[in-house]
Amino acid sequence: MGLRERKKAETRAALSWAALRLTVERGLDNVRVEDIAEAAGVSPRTFNNYFSGKGEAIVARHLDRCLRVADVLREDPEEPLWDAITRAVLTQFAPDAAATAHPVADTAQWVTGVRMMLAEPALRGEMLRAGAVAEAEIAAAVGDRTGTAPERDLYPHLVASAVMAATNTAMAHHLRSDPPVPLGPLLADALAQLTAGLPAP
Amino acid sequence: MGLRERKKAETRAALSWAALRLTVERGLDNVRVEDIAEAAGVSPRTFNNYFSGKGEAIVARHLDRCLRVADVLREDPEEPLWDAITRAVLTQFAPDAAATAHPVADTAQWVTGVRMMLAEPALRGEMLRAGAVAEAEIAAAVGDRTGTAPERDLYPHLVASAVMAATNTAMAHHLRSDPPVPLGPLLADALAQLTAGLPAP
DNA sequence: ACGCAAAGATGCGGATTCCGCAAGATTGAG
DNA sequence: CTCAATCTTGCGGAATCCGCATCTTTGCGT
């Protein structure tokens, strides 16, 4: 990767991280595009060369994680489908390696801010939209594994959307819970129930 | 219901229908709030008293249908959970009673327009957000039936999000297919596979 | 090492959207 | 019949998003 692409990736990362941090700190309505651009060290106009709006910038990291799930699903075609799915999801969402790169001073305050952020309807929509984009990739990967065609068969899309639904539900429960329930077991539990057919308890 | 509430409901319906029709006909970017308001016979400012934006108006009917699924789920607590769910979803989405109220001249062109509309990322997000709003209601209804608490248990949210995922997937497949596959069987199939645990084919 | 073509960053201006506020009109209850 | 609550509307401002023109930076061939 040349200097050009690296700088572009850095700018994108700086913008999305700044957007996320400022939104968690102040709330969506108290962050202007101008603020995000300033925090990332670029002009406001440049922000719109990378993202169409605040929302897209904020969920960019979530989108990346979801897309990497599809990548992991393409790695070992021999592994049973749901084993691979569980492994892929846990890898991307459980330890949250991304958070390690941006340590947060006050964890409690951060969690509160994230809750506020996801209470915003616009952000929820943006988040789900990102999941839908990734869903197409996941469906393609599932199609490759199972010999089904996403254009013709319902199965791969159904699996992909169910996986994203389970992931979203587990994350929502993680954020709702107090004291917080670890995300990893929640994700594993949700996917296990899904493969068991969601029988009435 | 008094005159006041009826007129309000009528204005809301007129606005959402106008928003949907104009968007399907011209594409999202070629419809301004002003146009929608004019088609509904109110001032542009009034539009914003009902909806926060074009997207919310357009998906208002979808949201209503999803919310009615939750209502149906509260009707007969004796029926097995998944039977009730399947019945509720098919009732609201299969025959599309809402479309009967607004007959479309050129069906083929309408379908094309709807495809274009849902290709718009912003609309996809809005649609999913509406589904998420309804999800809370559905989760509550499932919680009542199964004796689980949405605040404490993963199960009701998991079922609700899985149902919405299956519904969305079936609708997407219906719109993708050519010649069109009837929506009813697709919905039934998707929900059946979900209860079967999505085994690899 | 040099210079050129491609790609990105920036500033400006316009169109649009969304919301708060205040005034006028309509409805429903007493 | 009267009045308070509610709804509608116009105005104005803040913010967003995008096209266009210009300037700077990067990558590559010579």
Automatic annotation (TrEMBL), chains A, B:
A Pfam short name: TetR_C_14
Keywords, sorted A to Z: DNA-binding, Transcription, Transcription regulation
Annotated DNA-binding residue span(s): 32-51
GO MF entry, a single one: transcription cis-regulatory region binding
This protein's record includes keyword Transcription: yes
Keyword Transcription regulation among UniProt keywords: yes
Domain HTH tetR-type, first and last residues per copy: 9-69
Name of the protein in its database record: TetR family transcriptional regulator
